[in-house]
Structure formats: structure tokens, C-alpha cells
Automatic annotation (TrEMBL):
<dbReference type="InterPro" id="IPR011990">
    <property type="entry name" value="TPR-like_helical_dom_sf"/>
</dbReference>
<dbReference type="InterPro" id="IPR009211">
    <property type="entry name" value="TagJ"/>
</dbReference>
<protein>
    <submittedName>
        <fullName>Nitrogen fixation protein</fullName>
    </submittedName>
</protein>
<dbReference type="Pfam" id="PF07024">
    <property type="entry name" value="ImpE"/>
</dbReference>
């Protein structure tokens, strides 16, 4: 079998360590094998080791200068992932090219309250956000639904996006006209889905959408959550399932695969092919149309 097939087999068994071992062994014997080097970089991303991924991407670029453009986009996505981590762990704000929408401003307030373990303030911000959000109609994979909402209360109204310019963005559902996902073809697509986003203003860009939730802070396992909710759970890192947590203020957080509630159906980020949104105004969301490509 080829290395790609061997990696697919190992990952199908949730054996991330074995997959990394296979890629590392190939790189050790063939240090200028760019494909193997990039497979190893992608597996490092899945494992949450962004600095190691950057090291391998640099070495790949040195070995194959003609592939610099594609490798450069990968490294920009790593930069955006670092910015994402900085938001969820330190409170460094996401990028809002024209400023946060009213909904995103409330989500920022909500998450700051969670970071401060102020459950009352977090609950108040979520109530205001849900009230302002109302319902967000969606057409997912050709099926109409009256509302789309993320099942994680930390960001119920928007997607996270990584731009080719290295920025970590929030895009309100109301700002998006269509989100078209590409089929998965490489290991990294399990955790960062490739997509083409078209905004309501007509601008469009290629982005990566994180399919795996960031680790919640200060949460406890919900009563119906499986016992496999440990941060190091490889199955969750690979998006094999979703565990839910109780957060301060009665909010719900999640680990593992991102899920949306589309009408009365739970739609996972791995299942979705296209999400279409008719124009809707949510109390000032129109003031934050973000051109992901220019970011």
C-alpha cells in the first residue's frame, strides 16, 4: 500500500500515534519526500502540535521551492490556528475586518464572562444573543430548515474560519450567502474542512472551517456525556463523536466534532456539503460583513 493508504487505515482505527509513526519513518528514510513531510505536518495539526507542524512545513518548502505557494497557504492556516488558540486560551480577539456584529459582540461578552467564571453574566449574554438572533433559516444539502444554531453555546450564531491570509475570523450565519464544503481528501480535512464561502455582499473566498470544537474552559461533564470526554481522547480529536459539557451559568459547551441544529435535525460538520442562508438582518449584523479573502 502507499503511505496515504497506510495512514488512512491507521486513522480509521483512531490510531493517530501509528499514523504519525508511519509518516515519521518515511521522512527519516526519505527526508526530501515532500508529500510524506506534509502528511506528518498535518498529523501534528490533528495532535495539536502546531509548532512541530510549522517545522515540517518549513522543511518541505526548503525541499520543494516550486511548491512554495501551496505550502505557504498551509503555513498561513497554522498562523490562523495560533490566533484561534490565543482567543480561546488568552482572550486575544478574533479578526473582524469591519468590527464585530451585534451578535458577535454579545458572544465576545459571553466568552469573557465564562473565562472569568461569571456564570450569571454569561447566561445574561447568551439570553440577549439568542433573543437578538431570532431564527436563522438555512438550506442544508438541499433541505430547508427554519433555523440553524451551533449546539455549543459559546458561538451559537457563527462559524469559525481560517483565511488564506493567516487570520482567524468569525463569520455570522447572517453574513453568509453560501458555504460549500469540499470533500475530504487528506488527514487534515478531518479537523479543518476546506470550503468556499460566499458572503451576502457577493464577495467569496476559500477558507478552512474548524470541524473540531476548541477545548472548553471550566466545564464539567454533562449528565448524559460519555466517559470519553478527556482532552487527550484521540477519537474526539478525529471527530468521531461529540461530548457535551455543563458550563457556568447553565450553558452548554462541547468537545469533539462540531454539530449544528438544523431545524430538528443534528447536522455534523463532517456531514454537511452546502449551507445556504437567505438574507436576514439580526440587529446590526449587516454592519460586520467580513471579506474573508482580503483578511
Amino acid at each position: 500500500m502507499t503511505l496515504a493508504q497506510d495512514l488512512k487505515s491507521a486513522l480509521s482505527q483512531d490510531d493517530l500515534a501509528a499514523a504519525r509513526g508511519l509518516a515519521a519513518a518515511r521522512v527519516k528514510t526519505h527526508p526530501r519526500d515532500v508529500e510524506a513531510r506534509m502528511f506528518l505536518a498535518e498529523l501534528c495539526v490533528i495532535a495539536g502540535e502546531l509548532d512541530r507542524a510549522e517545522t515540517h512545513a518549513k522543511l518541505a518548502a526548503t525541499a520543494a521551492p516550486d511548491a512554495a505557494v501551496g505550502l505557504g497557504v498551509f503555513r498561513q492556516h497554522l498562523r490562523a490556528l495560533h490566533a484561534r488558540d490565543a482567543w480561546w486560551t488568552q482572550g486575544a480577539l478574533p479578526t473582524f475586518p469591519t468590527g464585530p456584529s451585534a451578535l458577535s459582540a454579545l458572544a465576545l461578552r459571553l466568552n469573557i464572562a465564562l473565562r472569568d467564571e461569571d456564570g450569571a453574566a454569561a447566561a445574561k449574554a447568551l439570553a440577549a444573543l439568542d433573543d437578538l438572533r431570532g431564527e436563522q433559516p438555512v438550506v442544508y444539502d438541499g433541505t430547508e430548515a427554519g433555523d440553524l444554531r451551533d449546539l455549543d453555546d459559546r458561538l451559537p450564531h457563527a462559524i469559525e474560519a481560517l483565511s488564506a491570509g493567516g487570520h482567524y475570523l468569525w463569520l455570522d450565519f447572517a453574513q453568509i450567502s453560501e458555504l460549500a464544503f469540499h470533500p475530504a481528501s487528506r488527514p487534515i480535512d478531518m479537523v479543518l474542512r476546506r470550503a468556499r464561502v460566499t458572503l451576502q455582499d457577493g464577495s467569496a473566498a476559500d477558507i478552512r472551517v474548524p470541524a473540531i470544537y476548541p477545548e472548553p474552559r471550566g466545564g464539567t461533564s454533562a449528565p448524559n456525556a460519555p466517559a470519553s470526554a478527556a482532552p487527550a481522547d484521540i477519537a474526539l480529536r478525529l471527530g468521531r463523536g461529540t461530548d457535551f459539557l455543563d458550563l457556568p451559568g447553565g450553558l452548554t459547551g462541547a468537545r469533539g466534532l462540531r454539530c449544528w441544529l438544523a431545524g430538528d435535525r443534528v447536522l455534523t460538520c463532517h456531514e454537511a456539503q452546502t449551507l445556504g442562508f437567505p438574507p436576514v438582518t439580526h440587529g446590526g449584523a449587516e454592519g460586520a460583513m467580513q471579506t474573508a479573502g482580503s483578511a
